[in-house]
Amino acid sequence: MKVGIVGNNVSAITLAKRLRDRDPSAEIVVFSKESFPYYQRPKLIDLLAGECEEKDIYFYPPAWYEKNRIDVRLSDPVLSVDPGSMTLKTASGEIKADRIVIASGASSFVPPIPGSGLGGVFCHRTLDDCRAIKSAAAASTNTVIIGGGVLGLETAGAIRKLNPNATVTVLEVMPWLLPRQLDPEGAAVLVSLLAARGIPVRTGVAIKGLLGGKKVGEIDLGGERLPADLVVVSAGVRPELGFLASSGLAIKKGVVVDDFLETSSRGIFCLGDAAEHRGTVYGIIKPAIDMADVAASNILAAGSKEYRGSLVSRNTKILDSYLLSVGDFSPADEKDCRVVRVVEKSEYRKFTVRGNSLVGLLSIGRRLPEMKVQQMIGSKTDISSILDKMRSLDYNFS
Predict the structure, then answer these.
(1) How far apart are CA 244 and CA 229, in angstroms?
(2) What is the pLDDT of residues 94-117, one digit of tens each?
(3) Which of 88, 72, 82 is nearest to 9 (CA)?
(4) What is the Rg, in whole angstroms, of the alpha carbon atoms belonging to the chain?
(5) Can you tell me the distance from the alpha carbon of 160 to that of 162, in angstroms, rounded to the nearest whole number?
(6) What are phi and psi of 52, to 5 degrees?
(7) Which residues, at least 6 apart from 273, have a Cβ–Cβ distance to it below 8 Å?
(8) CA distances from 3 to 31, 91, 308 (A)
(9) Model's pTM, two decimal places?
């Protein structure tokens, strides 16, 4: 069996490994737009901050690919997919496969801000992006991050560590930071933590445009101009699906897949950031790994394993504080559950209880054991005996 994998990221390479582990004879070909072997995208923050070297971000050494007979074709992006003939058209030619897997990931979204094409304006998604930002940040005086999501805040913290002399400001269009993860009380705690570390945050701003000649110099906020010699746009990502325009595959927010992770065309699978399963595009690592395991089973034995979704968990270090969010911590309807909030100067905890089970938790401040919290939520552990303890920020779930 020949399997053509579009993408060279955590979902793609995890799938390749699972296939090789289960089928020593499969022919596995991976197509990559980038010129680098698979690297750990979260480690780009450490690389930007100067806390690791490029060699530290690669997950597998070159010998691993050779040993496992995984043919990775770098700088050879897939340009189109023909489901009828099961053909991939790439920059270097065409290849037929018995199974095709769309694991193309996502790309940075750049809002239509006038001047966003000026020099000194970057996104932070790839290793090339990281290299360019790191070079510019070392000489920056006024850095501005547009977007107060997790990646934007991580980037702000990394640049602050790399160049402590630079002014680093975060601009967020929404009324408070991380509105999908935080309520105003939690966001206020996070803003105060960032400000104490020299990163001011401005929310509810309207960005009229970026100003400069060939290179950005200011940001027009409407009645006010903010100096900026480096701008990093961190306004979210979108699934990378342009090459599928003529494929005929069912696409909504992502490529629509069933519970076997098969697309609307038989023999073509999709996973990771590009996949939409039951109306959800996850865009985070754990579901990508879960999907890779399920897809590998179904590629080798059709209909052998179902994907039922993944427990969403995000664990991020922003400067010296940890932000952990697991499960349904912001239910749309709080009528059938209890939501408990604990706020102190530099810490915040919010958890949701339905019946006697924990269904979601959000924490800012000290580090909590992510796997233990996931286990409690996933197994619907009866927490009635520890509920009072959980109201204390000293309780660490151990």
Answers:
(1) 37
(2) 999 999 999 999 999 999 999 999
(3) 72
(4) 22
(5) 6
(6) -155, 170
(7) 9, 11, 104, 105, 106, 237, 239, 240, 254, 281, 282, 283, 288
(8) 11, 18, 24
(9) 0.90
The contacts of residue 320 (CB under 8 Å, 6+ apart) are: 197
Dihedral angle, C-alpha 18, 23, 29, 33, nearest 10 °: 0
Which class is 2-107+237-300 in CATH?
A: alpha beta
Provide the phi-psi class of 266: left if phi over 0, else alpha when psi is between -120 and 50, else beta: beta
* Tokens encoding 222: 């409407």
Do 121-233 and 313-390 agree at the fold level?
no
Helix axes 285-300, 10-22, angle to 10 degrees: 30
Half-sphere exposure of 35 (CA within 13 A, CB side): 2
- What local confidence, expressed as pLDDT, does residue 311 receive? 77
CA distance linking residue 57 with residue 16, whole number of Å: 19
Phi first, then psi, for residue 308 (nearest 5°) are -110, 15
Query: What is the rounded CA–CA span in Å between residue 261 and residue 38?
Result: 22
CATH assignment of 313-390, among 3.40.50.410, 3.30.390.30, 3.30.230.10, 3.40.50.150: 3.30.390.30
Angle between helices 127-138 and 150-162 (to 10 degrees): 40
Low-confidence ranges of the chain (pLDDT < 50): none
**Cα–Cα dist 1/3, whole Å:** 6
DSSP bridge partners of 212: 216
Give backbone dihedrals phi and psi of 227, rounded to 5 degrees, phi first: -65, 140
Per the CB < 8 A criterion, the answer to whether 132 and 138 are in contact is no
- Is 121-233 in CATH node 3.20.20.70? no
Q: How far apart are the first and last CA of the chain?
A: 46
Per domain, the residue ranges of the chain are: 2-107+237-300, 121-233, 313-390
